[in-house]
Write a structure and sequence with these properties.
The chain is mainly β. The chain has one helix at about 45-50, and strands at about 5-10, 15-20, 25-30, 35, 40, 50, 55, 70, 75, 100, 105-115, 125-130, 135-145, 150, 155-160, 165-170, 175-180, 185-190, 195-200, 205-210, 215-220, 225-235, 240-245, 250-255, 275, 280-290.
Length: about 290
């Protein structure tokens, strides 16, 4: 595990530990209580990346079917980057970022990727992490440095504590089933057991689905701790992925994304943004810690 942890803290009681390795947040505590759940990533050596509580998804999130895509008359191939047979979550979460600037309340990290045999994307990304009172703000940008235009996306992959009384509030208009290789299957209306508009516990079994038509708002309540967390995402994020192995797991993931999983294989791009050379995509998410209730 990396030992170069950067600590952000304020007088109100918010502390955040960040590692340049993977640009990952390793912990978030509010007055000593964890509001993110550090979790080793399956298929990766925990002694290398450690237990991550949140990491950036750049230049895309989730998987690409067949490890390739067709865009503007050209075919592109990517190589798997983990034990998973499909390329997963892009590059940034597996690479070391450099520190652009830091102080007690904020940190800016920079990552640059060249196109290579493993993938066509040449870009630079900047992630800014800021604390202010009970608020944690995460901003992510990606700038295309490829010779030609390519489709880009952004996302964040936080792990939240899952307790028996956890309730999730989030509204979406569409839902995607899951098929083989953890890829999205059929698009349908949100089923009753997956509708969190008015608040609901997480379903007990395996959960790994994309939700589209999201309004950019989410709230988690932990009644036994007398604590809640609200998430507000800007207009760049219209999709979220909800993941948890089971009710026995001590975590679940609510992943804001600019695009649907496997969007590179969708005819209309699935939310990916065409960036010409030098163009930038950006998005910001704010987490607010508060008492239960809106």
């Amino acid at each position: 595990m990396t030992d170069d942890i950067v600590l952000l803290e304020n007088e109100e009681g918010l502390t955040v530990e960040v590692s340049p390795l993977g640009g990952a947040i390793h912990s978030v505590l509010w007055r000593g209580v964890p509001v993110l759940a550090p979790t080793p990533t399956p298929g990766l050596a925990s002694q290398v990346l450690g237990a991550e509580a949140c990491f950036p998804l750049v230049p895309f999130g989730n998987r690409i079917e067949g490890n390739g895509f067709h865009f503007e008359g050209r075919d592109y191939t990517l190589a798997p980057n983990t034990a998973d047979p499909l390329v997963l979550h892009g590059d940034g979460w597996l690479r070391r970022w450099s520190i652009l600037r830091q102080d007690r309340h904020s940190l800016a990290l920079h990552y640059r990727q060249a196109a290579n045999a493993a993938g066509p994307f040449a870009y630079e990304a900047v992630q800014t992490i800021t604390i202010d009172g009970a608020n944690l703000t995460l901003s992510l940008t990606v700038t295309n440095h490829s010779a030609g235009a390519l489709p880009y996306g952004l996302g964040l992959h936080p792990y939240f504590p899952r307790t028996p009384d956890t309730r999730l509030f989030a509204h979406a208009s569409r839902y995607w089933t899951e098929r083989e290789n953890h890829l999205p299957g059929a698009e349908q209306s949100v089923p009753r057991g997956r509708d969190f508009t008015s608040g609901a516990p997480l379903p007990p079994g395996w959960l790994n689905n994309a939700f589209d038509g999201w309004d950019g708002k989410m709230r988690i309540e932990w009644p036994e701790a007398g604590l809640a967390l609200s998430l507000d995402a800007d207009e760049s994020f219209g999709v979220f992925v909800l993941y948890s192995p089971s009710s026995e797991a001590e975590f679940f993931c609510f992943e804001p994304m600019s695009h649907r999983p496997n969007a590179h294989r969708r005819p209309a791009g699935g939310g990916l943004v065409r960036l010409a050379q030098g163009e930038t995509l950006e998005g910001t998410v704010t987490l607010r810690i508060h008492a239960p209730g809106p």
